[in-house]
Amino acid sequence: MIRVLLADDQSLVRAGFRALLDAQPDIEVAAEAADGEEAVRRIRELRPDVVLMDIRMPSLDGLAATRRVTEDPSLKDVKVVMLTTFELDEYVFEAIRSGASGFLVKDTEPDELLRAVRAVVAGDALLSPGVTRRLIGEFAARSKEPAAADALASLTEREREVMALVGIGLSNGEIARRLVVSPLTAKTHVSRTMVKLNARDRAQLVVLAYESGLVRPGWLG
Q1: pLDDT band (50, 70, 90) for residue 202
Q2: Residue 65: CB partners within 8 Å, gap ≥ 6?
Q3: Are 4 and 48 a contacting pair, CB within 8 Å?
Q4: Confidence check: pLDDT of 220 > 50
Q5: What does pTM read for this prediction?
Q6: Confidence bin at 214 (pLDDT 50/70/90)
Q7: 3-state SS class at 198
Q8: Which residues does 188 contact at the CB level (< 8 Å), separation at least 6?
């Protein structure tokens, strides 16, 4: 059972999400929060699998709340998905760098929301491919000179290759086809790379790929 915490200051939004999520046999809403402070408190108390976190909330906004969660080692298994009204909200970019696993627009289709919750728990893909590529493009546009690639010294050549493909937004299936390996092998390489680099999820792996210089702006297909 996937346990979800809803953090949004609009009760109507929370009610709509709860109705959709609770109707699924493999998902349950563990709790709700109306502001960032309450969200962090309930997350520490309940340890949900996924948090759907609104960016703009009173008391403590979603971005600051996400940082508190992702910087707490005891909450490393909690995945945060940001909720926003606009796909290119400027805070989304910083949220991903802060450790959020992805983001969704509030008017997303119900099936996409359900798929996103399941995908982020599986750690298998970054939500919507189209949104992911726009996010990566935004990161590329804002990125400074790449840091030294010493952090990648522990990776094998194959793992560097896989990380670069993750960095340009490819899914495990697309990586498998590109490298002519099985999807399971591709997933194993991605998982090992994340472990070696202490990355929470694929979103952080994308950021590390850019920050290390392994992937450069302009490489997007």
Answers
A1: confident
A2: 7, 36, 37, 39, 40, 53, 57
A3: yes
A4: no
A5: 0.73
A6: confident
A7: coil
A8: none
